[in-house]
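Action item from last week, closing it out:
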Amino acid sequence: MAVVEISVTPLGTGTPSVSEYVAECLKIVQESGLSYQLTPMGTILEGEIEDILAVVQRMHQAPFAAGAVRVSTLIKIDDRRDRADHSMAGKMASVTKRLGKP
């Protein structure tokens, strides 16, 4: 299973606001059925890498369809194959455990 962080930034839209574009990208994620977590600076996706990359491609294209003339997409991939329980929750629990918190 993979955990992927993505941030899609439309450029050339005539406004500094991006929430409209973020909402469109999040609709794509919701329709995909992937587990996700929206953060103030991006979205974290969890699932099989092939499924995630298909969603990432759709997310990257969405601002163009909405009129952006340039899109900058940042992707960070953590694809761990030696454990079956690799997940957002598992990663958080591992750090929390080391901090001595329940």
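Closing note: The first strand starts at residue 2 and ends at 11.
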